[in-house]
Specification:
4 strands, globular, mainly beta
């Protein structure tokens, strides 16, 4: 099970740009999903990487691979 368990959110942006720190090097990550939590708590937590992001029809719409400083993807 993911570190944060089951969470709910709303896709706020489908073309979000974020800077990722990978092995000490900054990399631009384009075309990312930005998800805002529905209940005010972070959408994801450490240990969630690799979790699938599902829509309300239970179809996969994304893969969680990182969190920004606000706890959003």
């Amino acid at each position: 099970m993911a570190g944060s368990g089951l969470t709910f959110g709303v896709i706020a942006d489908t073309r979000h740009i974020e800077t990722a720190n990978i092995e000490g090097r900054s990399q631009i990550a384009r075309e990312q999903l930005l998800i805002a939590s529905e209940n005010g708590t972070p959408f994801s937590a450490p240990g969630d990487s690799g979790s699938v992001i599902l829509n309300y029809q239970h179809k996969v719409v994304g893969l969680l691979w990182g969190t920004n400083s606000c706890g959003r993807e």
